[in-house]
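Quick one: structure for this chain?
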Amino acid sequence: MGNLCSSERDPFSQPGRPLGTTPPTPTSASVPAAAKSPRTVGGPPRTLGGSSSPTTAAAASGPDDARQRAAAAAEERDKKAKQGGGKLKAKLAQRRAMTDADALEEASRTEQRQREVDESASALAHS
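Got it. Here's what it folds into:
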């Protein structure tokens, strides 16, 4: 019985290469040209959500001012969300106001109507 992972042939049966014929190894690794140049980031720091001009007084203010601007923006979004949104928003509000029992009852009525339509279609097909 032999080893399960071994091969039948002798590993030294193939000719090798003579000593000293290996390719020369480079003395240092090659570095891409993009990595050689230092990367610089330009311009002064900017606050996220601020104006496009970083030199304005609002952008130069501290974190308290940024917090106030964020709160004002959140209030503005809340006001816009509460405004009338049209037909789709009215349907969504109606669905949210519906209880589980109401939703099940509506689904049951819809299913019954669908069955009635299917029965009438099959009756017409057979006649």
